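Supplementary Data S3. Sequence and C-alpha cells for construct A.
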Amino acid sequence: MTITTPDTPHAQPLLDWYDRHHRDLPWRVSPGMAARGVKPDPYRVWLSEVMLQQTTVQAVKPYFERFLERWPEVIDLAAAENDAVMAAWAGLGYYARARNLKKCAEAVAQEHGGVFPDSEAGLKALPGIGDYTAAAVAAIAFNRQAAVMDGNVERVISRLYAIETPLPAAKPLMKNKVALLTPAGRPGDFAQAMMDLGATICTPKRPACSLCPFRGACQALKLSDPELFPVKAAKKEKPVRQGAAFVAVTADGEILLRRRAESGLLGGMTEVPTTAWTARIDGETSVAAAPFDAAWQACGTVIHVFTHFELRLSIWRTAIAAKPQIGNATNDEWWEPVTNLEAQALPTIMKKAIAAAIPLAFKHPRHDHDD
C-alpha cells in the first residue's frame, strides 16, 4: 500500500477536481456521460487531438463540428476528395496535419476495417500519428494507461516537481513523471484533467494556485515562483525571408490560382502565383518575376510569421481584360471567381496577399498560423 502525504503528488485529488470542474467540449465524454454508459468515439478523439496540436480549443471547435457534419465517420473522411479536406482545413494552420489526417483515415478504413487500433503501438503505426497523439487516443478513447503530455501538462509537471532543466531537454524527465503519476483506473480522465488544469488553473501567467488540487504537493509553489516554470532555453531569432505574390483579376472577376506541390511547406494548398521563397532562401520580390506581362501595380507588403521564420511578401496586382496564355496550363493552375475564394484551400498567408490587392475579397479574414 502506498502512503501519501500532502507533499506526495497523487492522481485522486486531480480526478475529484475534474469531476467537478471539467470543461464541456464537443469531442469529450464527460464523467457524467461516462456514468450513464456513454463510451468515447475513437474517431472524434483522434480528430480533435490532431486539430488541437498547436491550436487553441476555441479555434478548433467550429472546424471539428464542420468536419463531423461533413464526414461523420472515419470511412467518410477516408473517401473524401483531398481538395475538399484541404479546403475544409484552410485557416486552421499547420497543413501537414490535414494531409496526414487524410492518409490516416484511409489507413484505418482500408487496413483496419474502419476501426482504430486500441493500443499505443497500433495507433503509432498509422500515418501521421506520433507519440503524443498515440498516447492521447489510447488513454482517452481506450482507457489505456498511457502517459499523455502536451504543453499544458508540461507546465503542470514542471511546477509540480520544480524541474529546472530547460525545455526541450526536460521532456523525457517530464514524461517519466507523467507516466508514474498516471493511474491504472481512469487514465483517460486523468489525461484530460491534466490538460484542463493547465488550461484553466495552472496557467502560464498568474496561476490560480489556491484552487489547484495539487497545491499541497507543488514544489514550485513551496520553493519558488510557479511562473518561473517551465524553464525554457533561449529562443533563437527567426530569420526573415522575402518573396512576392501576384494577384491577377479579369474583367469578369476571376483570379489566377494554382496548387502548391504536395511536399514541403503549405504542401497541396492553393495559392496565387508567388516566387520561390522557402524557410531557407529568399524569392524574387520585383515585378520581373510576374507570371505574365501586364500592368502590375505594387500593393504593399504583407508579413506572416511561420514557426521557424518570418515571411515578407511584396504584393503585385493587375486587372486584365482577357485571360492571357500562362505557359503550359495544367490542372494545377486555373482561374477562379473571386466570389468563390472562401471555398478554396487558401492558407492564411495567401488570404493576406489577396486581401492586400482586393480588400473586400474575404468578408471574415482569419489570422491563424500557416505551417
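Construct B, processed identically:
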Amino acid sequence: MNATLIAVALSLVSAGAYAAAAVAQSRLAGRTEPSTGVLRLLGRGAWWSAVGLNAGGALLHVAALNYGPLTLVQPLGALTLVAAVPLGARAAGRRVGRVEWRGTVLTLLGLGALLLTAGGSAPHETLTLPEALGVGAATMAVVAGLSRPGARPGLRHAAASGITSGVASALTQTLTVAVTDHSGGPLFSWRLLTVALLVSAFAMGGLLLSQTAYRGGLGAPLAVVTLANPVAAAAIGLALLGERLQGGPVSLVLALLGTAAAVRGVILLSRAQADGGTDPGEAAAAPGPVADPLPGRVVIGSPRRAESPPLGAEPLAVRAEPLAVRAEPLAVRAGARPHP
C-alpha cells in the first residue's frame, strides 16, 4: 500500500480516537467541580478512559508521522472537530444545530486553506538540542501567559492546549525522523532524551489544559484546540525545519482567507455553545410559559422557568395580613348588672 494512503488512514482513525476522548473529557468536566484536583481525577474511571483514548490517538498519530509529512498529518487532525460535534450532541441528547454545522464547516475550510499552503515533501530535517530547548521555553512562556486568571478561561486554556499539542507533534516528528534515520548515528543521545521528555511533558500538559477548557462546553474550546494545534506545528516547520509556503503571494492570500474563515467558524461555535447548541429560530418557535389568568395561583402543568429553583427548594410564600377586628366597646347601661 502507498505510504501516503497509510498515513491518511492512520490519521483518520487517530482523529476518531481524539474526538471520542474530547467528548469523554467534556462529560467528565461537566460532572466535576472546578475545585477538583488532579489527584481526585486520577481515581475516576472516566478519566482513565479519556486518557486511554488520547493515548491511542497519539500512538496512531506517531505512526502516521512515520509514513507522511507533518504538513499532511496535522491538517487531518482537524477531522477531530467534525467527529466530536455530532458525538457531543448525541451524548447531550440533542441534534446538531445549523449554527454548529456552519461553524464546523468554516473552521475546517479555514484550516484546510492554511495547511495546504504549507504542504511539502516528507520531512528530513530535525530540531537540534538548542532549538528543542528554545521551543520548549517559548511554549512554556506562552502557556503561562494564557493560563493566567482573567476573562474567557476556557478559550485561553483551549488555545494553550492546542499550542502544547502542536509543539508535541513537531517534537514527535523530530523523534520519528531521528529514530528511523539509517545514517548510522547513535539511537540514544542527550538530544533525543531531552526531546522525548519535552514530548511527554507537553502531551500531558495539553491533556490537562483541555480538561480545564471543556468545563465550559465542547464546541468552541475544541475548535480553538483544533485551530491552534496545526498553526503551532506549521510555525515550527516553517521557522526551524526548512518548510516553505507553496505558491508565493497566492499562497499568502489563501492563508489569510483561511485564517479569516477559521476565526469566523470559532466565533459561530462559541455563540452556539453559549446558546446550548440551539438555533435562534428553534428557540423562538419553542412554546413559552402559559399565562395565568389569576395571578398568584399555581397552574398545574405550566412549564417552570429554567432559572427558578425546583419545587421544595424554597419555602411557600404565605401572605401574612393582620385580621381586621372591629373593636367596639360594649355599651353598658347604667345600673345594669353585667353578665358573669
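The radius of gyration is 30 Å. The mean pLDDT is 74.
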